[in-house]
Amino acid sequence: MGRFVQGEDRRLAFLLPASLDDYVSEDNPVQVVEAFIDELDFHGSGFAGATPAETGRPAYHPSTMLKIYLYGYLNRIQSSRRLEREAQRNIELMWLTGRLAPDFKTIANFRRDNGDAIRAVCSQFVVLCRQLSLFGQATVAVDGSKFKAVNNRDRNYTQHKAAKRIEQVEGSIERYLAALDRADREASDVPQARVDQIREKIAGLRGQMQFLKDMAAQVEAAPDHQVSLTDPDARSMNSSGRGTGIVGYNLQAAVDAEHHLIVAHEVVNEGNDRAQLAPMGRQALAAIDAPEITVLADRGYMNGEQVLECEGTGILPCVPRTDTSGKAQRGLFTKADFVYDADQDRYTCPAGEYLTKATRVRTTMATSTTIAT
């Protein structure tokens, strides 16, 4: 073992214990988290528990909980149970919290009870970035991401889902009624227990049918014709995979093009991004505090009304047009397949050949007609 790098004996006792500062370098991101959170006004931001109660067990200060929350955000740790484990074993979190390790329920309750306050902290962070001139180019990129809610797809109802499930229940009732008819004709061959079981299933299906009819009425009365039972504000929307979908939320984010900092964010329950260009542009413009900004987005944001709404507001949208032609599906070339050269005033086709402008002269002969009176 003499030719290998040797570690220390874990049973070796130290006269002076090592300091946590020895394990966290000065350029570690947790240093920024510590400095930023220590300067926050938790009373003014509206954090619950900023003023300790005079009786009962002492609570964790909101600064400690916010440090854990932000550390999880920076390191993509969303689960409160995982954050609990990290607080017990992660040197960086130990340094941030002073070796405090709240349980997962405390972490989850903090996020649930301080949503508005955490949003206010995000706004203060954007102000800090603006003061540090981190938003120099005044260019942001906007995009949306789908996040799954707790609501299961079976507990989300649309007009199509309600009608389809009613049809399925009606088919099941018909099958059980047919089974009862056979049992009546063959009374000696079918045990009574089987008959009672079929009748119980029919009664249960009729109760389910009534529930589905009531749900169909609620769906019809809903503004967007959709109802979610577990998360009322969650909506069914398509995900990136073809033929798949989730019940969740659409998170819109505007990101600074230079330093990739999130300038503005918003959670909506619309399944597409066509109505989000102008709202996210306004939020980004207010956050950056610039006379005008350039907003980059994909063709999913292309909406003529949204582009028109940006006009005259200091928002310069840059969005590709949506290809509405069916040529690509028919195996034909589209306009996007041809590259235009402005200097030569010509197009280059996919085969690499040049397409020049052709001039056509059309001559027409004028005719006169004399009308006799």
UniProtKB/TrEMBL annotation:
<feature type="domain" description="Transposase IS4-like">
    <location>
        <begin position="239"/>
        <end position="321"/>
    </location>
</feature>
<dbReference type="InterPro" id="IPR002559">
    <property type="entry name" value="Transposase_11"/>
</dbReference>
<dbReference type="InterPro" id="IPR047629">
    <property type="entry name" value="IS1182_transpos"/>
</dbReference>
<feature type="coiled-coil region">
    <location>
        <begin position="166"/>
        <end position="215"/>
    </location>
</feature>
<dbReference type="Pfam" id="PF05598">
    <property type="entry name" value="DUF772"/>
</dbReference>
<keyword id="KW-0175">Coiled coil</keyword>
<dbReference type="Pfam" id="PF01609">
    <property type="entry name" value="DDE_Tnp_1"/>
</dbReference>
<dbReference type="GO" id="GO:0004803">
    <property type="term" value="F:transposase activity"/>
</dbReference>
<feature type="domain" description="Transposase InsH N-terminal">
    <location>
        <begin position="19"/>
        <end position="112"/>
    </location>
</feature>
<dbReference type="InterPro" id="IPR008490">
    <property type="entry name" value="Transposase_InsH_N"/>
</dbReference>
<dbReference type="GO" id="GO:0006313">
    <property type="term" value="P:DNA transposition"/>
</dbReference>
<protein>
    <submittedName>
        <fullName>Transposase</fullName>
    </submittedName>
</protein>
<dbReference type="GO" id="GO:0003677">
    <property type="term" value="F:DNA binding"/>
</dbReference>
